[in-house]
User: Fold this.
Amino acid sequence: MRPLAALIRRDLRIALRAGGGALIGVLFFLTVVVLMPFAVGPDLKLLARLGPAILWLGALLANLLTLDRLFMADHDDGSLDLLVTSRMPLELACAAKAFAHWLAAGVPLIMATPVLGLLLNLDAISTLAVALTLLAGTPALTFTGMIGAALAVTLHRGGLLLAVLVLPLSIPVLIFGVAASEAAISGPLSFGTPFSMLCALSLVSFVIGPVAAAASLRHGLD
Assistant:
């Protein structure tokens, strides 16, 4: 457990320092949400109806913007080779790196949701519901996105390839996240059904993501 904790602390320090990437995702999320009321116009009811989708879409794009840094920095300085050849199982190392990425890039998005909900004309209950769905769903975005990040770094391709790989895997999370938020706000569907699916996607990605990413790294770095 001590090596895993050290790896998480190291990745958090790298992500939170200047140019580490976490701040870029948060600023992008803020920019998307702040500009959206100007694009929609003065219709407050329409803005409130679109609010959950806007917050979820901003979180998805912000997460995608920072995923390329998950393994790229380690690959550039050679520490990724040390992780692959170390005694620590590579699956656990990938899970620790994804958890650190979620803490640095995902948790700030959730914390900013109550403030940004005011800009989208969402009341307190609606904002809390959206924040709860983001808390349950953003880990799935990170752990599924880790697979695309591992493939991109081993194939020495980033940018468009990462987006092409990650976006199809993220669509179910986006669908159930928005559905759960809208069910909590206006109904008539039950909040529990899409929220349970959202939690299930996060749990499945937590199991599959590190295994698939580790397999990709081993195959690509051989």
Notes: The chain is about 85% helix and 0% strand. The longest helix spans residues 124-154. The chain has a mean pLDDT of 84. The CA atoms of residues 126 and 185 lie 5 Å apart.
